[in-house]
Specification:
The chain has 1060 residues and is an alpha/beta fold. Helices cover 37% and strands 12% of the residues. The strands form seven sheets. Strands 3-10-11-9-8-4-7-6 form an eight-stranded mixed sheet, with helices on both faces. Strands 17-14-18-19-21-20-26 form a seven-stranded mixed sheet, sandwiched between helices. The longest helix has 24 residues. The protein starts with 16 loop residues before the first helix and ends with a helix. The N terminus is likely disordered. The chain binds thiamine diphosphate (TPP) and magnesium ion (MG). Magnesium ion binds next to helix 14. InterPro entries: 2-oxogl_dehyd_N, 2oxoglutarate_DH_E1, DH_E1, KGD_C_sf, ODO-1/KGD_C, THDP-binding, Transketolase-like_Pyr-bd. This is 2-oxoglutarate dehydrogenase, mitochondrial.
Length: 1060
């Protein structure tokens, strides 16, 4: 035990505290103190005692006393005074005057000293034996040890094998003696001694002191039984106490007979469902829940309690395991609909569909327990484990936002996880880190881990380095409840506490249901190949339903007949649904939609797009607001550099011109005016990576005083959100996708810092954005803004990998859609996403507005500029944006070449910023009459109709595609086959010169051959025109790291562009 040295040097008062701590711990001699049962805290000095170990406590007391003797209890004051005055061991202590009678539940220290056993008795004014102090401190340390480390010895594993970090298979977790009773110096004789309980424990309920035996019993019950709790790392004393209060009192997990019957009934359904599927479709993969059937009652318990506490809508995300069971028994999706998924029927509606254990659903129903209406949605998800987590959070956030549920009282999320995926997938961490950010919080998520202690064929000891699969949750101070799945009542208690925690603190919480997987990874897998011992154990383990039914029969809560009756009834329900499913001839993907947009499609012409031009007055109003400091706030001090930017903006508005940032603001502002919510999220988006946007102005003198002009355009405008995100792509893009699918009347944009970084979110792009509608009939109008362009910034700040997006565009390169008046919208309707690389601010304005003008929603992948943000030529005028103007998928040549098209010798098609390089080069080489430049503002869907017209306009010109990216990147691989299709389909066919074919010479040397006086050679029969390539050569890296090499490459491509 720690003892204070008696002879304190006077200088210690002002000396450093380290020295005090070291002698306190290392040179024990004597100490004396007193303990008063629950004496009200008179100073802050009392608090560390409640939390810390005894050494920290004594040390803190001493330090407090050094700085102010009045800040500690009088007993400590007396002790330290005596000690510093050289009092002998055991006599430094002087009891303080008893100022008031003991209040209720206070225990005088004298009463804690055994009457016999050779211990000295205490009377007022007499020195106290230090053993009493030591023993009390030891008891408190033991209590704290249970609270902090009890989970390590808890019996949470229904198989009785151990977790990853703990010893070999077949051993129970180490005993609590080993782990908690480090300070245990007591023998049997001490067991009946009464010890005062600190106010940081609730094991005593109303008792303030208990015999040691009872203290240990209660601690064992609370912390080392079937629930293991990790919470002592939480920084809030209030929150720690809240948990202790709910977990420590004896019998907290006791349930009423009605509750027990409800658990049994739910367990019967959960088990019955899997049994039924196993019986009917024995060789179908369904990723059954066997071994963790308690998951269903657990989820229902969380839902019941949350609904009771006010939640009306729950959004859930989960992996494959037990998903069908959740849909059937938690969401109560009609069973026959589920069963038709096994029948291999064709779909009645569009889409390529998904496997049954990935589908989502949405259901509104009455919660019979709380008698309240509740909406439940399970988000569709891909195989990619945990990828759905941020999507669920985004959807939850959006639902809270639209309902005005600013504290998350009405809408919440539940995320289910597998143990291996929860520990292994980084997106879990990224999602957790969104949990408390102002623009991303969902005000607490209940995480439930179906911890079957295995991931496919891999044991925990090979799949994670942390002790628990849940350790990631510690970073956000979430309490973690590990619970044995074979104790249904403990599971339900934990679920109640978790739901209450979420409702009270609006923070994340984790329920780790430690269970097992009765079968292989799926139903046709053999687990004995890889986990023989574990599966021998599993084979001998009775299903929890049987165990619990036996328990309730023994307790007299139910009879064996009742158990059988409930089971038979559910089987009959399944059988009826099975017969009903047999009548079905088709499945409907729409039945599996997780966010129906009721009212959005109804009564709409599916091919009618509204206009995107707006009246000039609106442009002027938005432009002026966007260029002004906060109105009526002269004291709002803006940075001088920003004032210059605002001034330049205002001048542009006065000149009826716009740059990129102004065009973007006008697109947002005009949509906000029309009642469309706009949300822009991503790293540093408020200012903009390139310092061009400045949507949030910061007061230079007042912290957190900001002004967002776009949020204050019109009194009745829709809300505008612009938010800097955490430094995450996977998590944040997933979040915004979830946000975007919730309500079609919103423009949701995610901006990459540089387009290069989008590949960190590749899974969201591949699994949700490009294929989401095809798999799940779920539309999203999300916009990805991706700074892109070869500007000599090196391999990682140049390319947004345009080629990848184009490669995933689902339009057939060999098929040219027939021409029609609604060509544009028809193509957009049929595509999986839109890929564009706009060159003008007006194009940006229109394409953003078109997202909302469409009668459906499509993702938009937009390459955005960097240097063009300040390029003097990259401007548009109001004339390109006012009423009557639209988005131009293609911007034709409008200069001299267009005046005399038959003389034009080359038409260069291009997209994005390279246009400005080509323009400059053409000007410098005086080729404005010879070369026409045509810009594809939208690359995919491919504007065949407009390209065709351009080609026809220049009958004598060779066709080239000019791009700045390397040949195996950029648009070339996408546009080349489509040009071929178009040219082959074209009526206008003319003989070609060899130079037009971009033949062997140009391919070898990157240059065209010398022109051959329109000579057609010996083979003059009509062949289709072709398009040749003008751009950088192929490469492995997207861009060179050398500025010189970059410039040389650019020079080459521009020279080649000028070769006629
Ligand atoms: C990102 C990702 N990587 C790999 C897989 C393949 N896979 C499917 S299930 C599984 C094991 C998952 O284990 P766990 O998370 O514990 O869930 P369980 O199947 O045990 O319920 C793996 C590796 C996947 N679906 N997603
Ligand atoms: Mg697992």
């Amino acid at each position: 035990m720690h003892r204070a040295r008696i002879a304190l040097q006077a200088s210690t008062r002002t000396g450093n505290t380290e020295r005090f701590a070291s002698w306190l711990l290392n040179k024990p001699q004597a100490a004396a103190a007193t303990v008063y049962a629950n004496r009200p805290k008179s100073s802050t000095a009392a608090e560390p005692f409640l939390n810390g170990s005894s050494s920290a406590y004594v040390e803190t007391m001493y330090n407090n006393w050094l700085s102010d003797p009045n800040s500690v209890h009088a007993s400590w004051d007396a002790f330290f005074r005596n000690a510093t005055n050289g009092a002998q061991p055991g006599v430094a202590y002087t009891p303080p005057p008893n100022l008031a009678p003991y209040s209720k539940n206070e225990v005088p220290l004298t009463s804690l000293v055994p009457a016999s056993g050779g211990m000295p008795s205490i009377s007022a004014g007499s020195p106290i034996n230090e053993k009493i102090i030591d023993d009390h401190l030891a008891v408190q340390a033991i209590i704290r040890s249970y609270q902090a480390r009890g989970h390590l010895a808890a019996d949470v594993d229904p198989l009785g094998i151990t977790t990853a970090k703990l010893p070999a298979l077949g051993m129970r977790a180490p005993s609590s003696e080993l782990i908690m009773r480090k300070y245990f110096n007591f023998d049997e004789a001490d067991m009946d001694r009464v010890f005062k309980l600190p106010s940081t424990t609730f094991i005593g309920e109303k008792e303030k002191a208990l015999p040691l035996r009872e203290i240990l019993n209660r601690l064992e019950q609370a912390y080392c039984n079937n629930i293991g709790i990790e919470f002592m790392f939480i920084n809030s004393l209030e929150q720690c106490n809240w948990i202790r209060q709910r977990m420590e009192p004896p019998n907290v997990t006791k349930m009423s007979n009605d509750q027990k019957r409800l658990i049994l009934a739910r367990l019967t359904r959960s088990t019955g469902f899997e049994n039924f599927l196993a019986k009917k479709w024995s060789s179908e993969k369904r990723f059954g829940l066997e071994g963790c059937e308690i998951l269903i009652p657990a989820m229902k318990q969380v839902i019941d309690t949350s609904t009771r506490l006010g939640v009306e809508s729950i959004i859930m995300g989960m992996p494959h395991r037990g998903r069908l069971n959740v849909l059937a028994n938690v969401c109560r999706k009609p069973l026959h609909q589920l069963f038709t998924q096994f029948a291999g029927l064709e779909a009645e509606d569009d889409g390529s569909g998904d496997v049954k254990y990935h589908l989502g659903t949405y259901i509104e129903r009455l919660n019979r327990v709380t008698n309240k209406n509740i909406r439940l949605a399970v988000c569709a998800n891909p195989s990619h484990l945990e990828a759905v987590d941020p999507v669920v959070q985004g959807k939850t956030r959006a639902e809270q936002f639209y309902r005005g549920d600013n504290e998350g009282k009405k809408v919440m999320s539940i995320l289910l996880h597998g143990d291996a995926a929860f520990a292994g997938q980084g997106v879990v961490f990224e999602t957790m880190h969104l949990s408390d950010l102002p623009a991303y919080t969902t005000h607490g998520t209940v995480h439930i881990v179906a911890n079957n202690q295995i991931g496919f064929t891999t044991d925990p000891r090979h799949s994670r380095s942390s002790a628990y699969c849940t350790d990631v949750a510690r970073v956000v101070n979430a309490p973690i409840f590990h619970v044995n799945s074979d104790n249904p009542e403990a599971v339900m208690h934990v679920c109640n506490v978790a739901a209450e925690w979420r409702a009270t603190f609006h923070k994340d919480v984790v329920i780790d249901i430690v269970s097992y997987r009765r079968n292989g990874h799926n139903e046709v897998d053999e687990p004995m190949f890889t986990q023989p011992l574990m599966y021998q154990k599993i084979r001998k383990t009775k299903p929890v339903l049987e165990k619990y039914a036996d328990q309730l029969i023994t307790e007299g809560v139910v009879t064996a007949e009742e158990v059988k009756d409930v089971k038979d009834k559910y089987e009959k329900i399944c059988e009826d649904a099975y017969n009903q499913a047999k009548q079905e001839t088709h499945i409907k993907y729409k039945d599996w939609l997780d966010s129906p947009w009721s009212g959005f499609f109804e009564g709409k012409d599916p091919l009618k797009m509204s206009t995107t031009g707006v009246v000039e007055e609106t442009l002027v109003h938005i432009g002026k607001r966007f260029s002004s400091p906060p109105p009526n706030a002269a004291e709002f001090e803006i940075h001088k550099g920003l004032l210059r930017i605002l001034k330049a903006r205002m001048e542009m508005v006065e000149n009826r011109t716009v740059d990129w940032a102004l065009a973007e603001a006008m697109a947002f502002g005009s949509l906000l005016k029309e009642g469309i919510h706009v949300r822009l999220s991503g790293e540093d988006v408020e200012r903009g990576t390139f310092s061009h946007r400045h949507h949030v102005l910061h007061h230079q003198k007042v912290d957190k005083a900001t002004y967002c002009p776009l949020a204050h355009l019109y009194p009745d405008q829709a809300p505008y959100t612009v938010c800097n995100s955490s430094l995450s792509e996977y998590g944040v893009l997933g979040f915004e996708v979830g946000y975007s699918v919730t309500n079609p009347n919103a423009l949701v944009l995610w901006e990459a810092q540089f387009g290069d970084f989008n590949n960190v979110a590749q899974c969201i792009i591949d699994q949700f954005i490009s294929s989401g509608q095809a798999k799940w009939v779920r539309q999203s109008g999300i916009v990805l803004l991706q700074p892109h362009g070869m500007e000599g910034m090196g391999p990682e700040h140049s390319s947004a990998r345009l080629e990848r997006f184009l490669q995933m565009s689902a339009d057939d390169p060999d098929y040219m859609p027939p021409e029609s008046p609604d060509y544009e919208v028809r193509q957009l309707h049929d595509c999986n996403w839109i890929v564009a690389n706009c060159s003008s601010p007006a194009s940006l304005f229109h394409i953003l507005r078109r997202q909302i003008a469409l009668p459906f929603r499509k993702p938009l992948i937009l390459m955005t500029p960097k240097s063009l943000l300040r390029h003097p030529e990259c401007k548009s005028t109001f004339d390109d944006m006012v009423e009557g103007t639209t988005f131009r998928r293609l911007i034709p040549e409008e200069g001299p070449a267009a005046q005399n098209p038959s003389n034009v010798r080359k038409v260069a098609f291009c997209s994005g910023r390279v246009y400005y390089d080509l323009l400059k080069q053409r000007r410098e080489k005086n080729l404005e009459k010879d070369i026409a430049i045509v810009r594809l503002e939208q690359i995919s869907p491919f504007p065949y109709d407009q390209i065709k017209a351009e080609i026809a306009k220049y009958p004598n010109a060779q066709l080239v595609w000019s791009q700045e990216e390397h040949k195996n990147m950029g648009s070339w691989s996408y546009i080349e086959p489509r040009f071929r299709t178009l040219l082959q389909n074209q009526k206008h066919i003319r003989p070609m010169s060899r130079s037009q074919t971009g033949g062997w010479f140009s391919q070898l040397f990157g240059k065209a051959e010398a022109p051959q006086s329109d000579q057609t050679g010996p083979h003059t029969e009509a062949v289709p025109r072709t398009i040749s390539y003008n751009g950088r050569a192929t490469a492995a890296s997207p861009a060179t790291g050398s500025k010189a090499a970059h410039n040389k490459e650019l020079r080459n491509l521009l020279e080649e562009f000028c070769v006629l």
